[in-house]
């Protein structure tokens, strides 16, 4: 993953409302959630939800698919995995992590 892509995705998740939306979609798993159900779960106005979903879709963290008259939102798990891998790829590369409790080490 490129630095600019990671920065854009992290910036999108830096908004509390978008982070709540994203975490809700991650918890929903592969089937995703209809926009109406997502709105009801989070108790946010439709226009606000639409605005934040658009931002998450632009950076690739969320996808939307129409099923008949319903819009289904899903977390893009490969992008999420890529972002996590980007964040930990160089963990402690310049230091000895054996006793620091860093990612991938026994604390």
What does this structure look like?
The protein has helices at 3-13, 16-28, 35-42, 46-58, 77-88; strands at 33-34, 62-67, 70-75. With 107 residues, it is of the alpha+beta class. The chain has one domain (3-88): Orthogonal Bundle (Arc Repressor Mutant, subunit A), CATH 1.10.10. A hairpin with a 2-residue loop joins β2 and β3 (70-75). The model has no long low-confidence stretch (mean pLDDT 91).
Key traits:
single chain, 107 residues, alpha+beta, Arc Repressor Mutant, subunit A, 3-stranded antiparallel β-sheet, 5 helices, 53% helix, elongated
Question: Shape from CA axes?
Answer: elongated
* Class per helix and strand makeup: alpha+beta
Helix content: 40-55%
> Which fold name is given in CATH as the topology?
Arc Repressor Mutant, subunit A
Beta-strand percent range: 5-15%
Low-confidence stretches: none
Q: Nearest-angstrom radius of gyration?
A: 16 Å
Question: Can you describe this structure in just a few lines?
Answer:
With 107 residues, the protein is an alpha+beta fold.
Blueprint (SSEs and pairs):
Layout: H1 3-13, H2 16-28, E1 33-34, H3 35-42, H4 46-58, E2 62-67, E3 70-75, H5 77-88
Antiparallel strand pairs: 1-3, 2-3
């Amino acid at each position: 993953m490129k630095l600019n892509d990671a920065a854009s995705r992290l910036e999108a998740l830096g908004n509390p409302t978008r982070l709540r939306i994203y975490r809700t979609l991650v918890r929903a798993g592969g089937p995703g959630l209809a926009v109406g159900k997502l709105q009801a779960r989070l108790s946010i106005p439709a226009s606000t939800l639409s605005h934040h979903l658009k931002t998450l879709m632009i950076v690739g963290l969320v996808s939307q698919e129409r099923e008949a008259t319903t819009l289904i939102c899903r977390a893009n798990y490969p992008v999420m995995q890529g972002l996590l891998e980007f964040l930990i790829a160089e963990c402690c590369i310049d230091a000895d992590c054996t006793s620091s409790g860093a990612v991938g080490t026994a604390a």
